[in-house]
Structure to design on (228 residues):
C-alpha cells in the first residue's frame, strides 16, 4: 500500500513515476493454470518495464526503506542480497539522495545504486540488488539465437570475436577471465555473469535493429534502381 502524504515525510522521499503502477505484464493472465512463464519471459517483462521513463526523487532515504517503497508502489519485485552487503560493509541504513526526471527506470536505478557501490541483476523477473563482486561470482549459461545476425561472408566466429572484444573484454577466458562463449548450430552458447549477459543481450538487440535498417535501405535502393 502506498504511504499516505503524512507518511511520505517519514520515508524521506518523493516518487513520481510515469506509469509506475502499470502491471508487470499481461503474460501471467494469459498463461494456463498449469503453465508458468519461463525465467526468460519474466526477465524480459521486467527489463521492458525498466525502459519506461521515470521522475524520481529520494531525499536522505535509507537504502532498505527505498527498496521497500519501490516494491510496494511498483509491480517489480526487488530483493536485497543482505549477505553480500554485509560482507562489503554496506549498511541497509545508508542514505540515498537522487533527483532525476525523464530518464529510464534502468538509468535511475543505476544512478541510485551507484551511490552505494551496488549493482543489480534480474532473475525470474526479480531485481536482485547486490555488490559488483558478488555478481562476478555468478555463472549463468544462456543460448542466444544468432543466425539472423550474420551478413553474407560473415561467420559466427566473427560475432564471437565482436563480443569478446567489445563486451567486458577482460571477463572472457581468452583474456584470463571466466566467461566462455562458443558457437553451435546458429546459436551462441555463453557462460557469463548476469551483468555481462545484460550487455550481450543489449548488443545483440542493437545489431538486429541495425540489420533490419540495412535490409530496409537495401530494399529501397533496389526498388529505386528497378524503376524506369
Amino acid at each position: 500500500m502506498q504511504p499516505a502524504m503524512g507518511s511520505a515525510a517519514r520515508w524521506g522521499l518523493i516518487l513520481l513515476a510515469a506509469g509506475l503502477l502499470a502491471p508487470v505484464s499481461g503474460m501471467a493472465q494469459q498463461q494456463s493454470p498449469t503453465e508458468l512463464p519461463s525465467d526468460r519471459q519474466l526477465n524480459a517483462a521486467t527489463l521492458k518495464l525498466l525502459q519506461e521513463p521515470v521522475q524520481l526523487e529520494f531525499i536522505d532515504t535509507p537504502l532498505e526503506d527505498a527498496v521497500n517503497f519501490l516494491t510496494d508502489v511498483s509491480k517489480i519485485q526487488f530483493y536485497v542480497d543482505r549477505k553480500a552487503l554485509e560482507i562489503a560493509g554496506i549498511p541497509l541504513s545508508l542514505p540515498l539522495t537522487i533527483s532525476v526526471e525523464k530518464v529510464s527506470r534502468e538509468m535511475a536505478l543505476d544512478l541510485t545504486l551507484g551511490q552505494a557501490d551496488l549493482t543489480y541483476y534480474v532473475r525470474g523477473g526479480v531485481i536482485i540488488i547486490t555488490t559488483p563482486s558478488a555478481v562476478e561470482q555468478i555463472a549463468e549459461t544462456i543460448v542466444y539465437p544468432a543466425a539472423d545476425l550474420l551478413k553474407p561472408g560473415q561467420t559466427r566466429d566473427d560475432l564471437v570475436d565482436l563480443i569478446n572484444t567489445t563486451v567486458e573484454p577482460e571477463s572472457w577466458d581468452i583474456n584470463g577471465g571466466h566467461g566462455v562463449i562458443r558457437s553451435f548450430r546458429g546459436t551462441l552458447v555463453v557462460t557469463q555473469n548476469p551483468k555481462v549477459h545484460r550487455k550481450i543481450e543489449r548488443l545483440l538487440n542493437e545489431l538486429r535493429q541495425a540489420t533490419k535498417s540495412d535490409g530496409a535501405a537495401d530494399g529501397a535502393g533496389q526498388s529505386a534502381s528497378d524503376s524506369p
User: Anything to note?
Assistant: Confidence is low (pLDDT under 50) at residues 1-29.
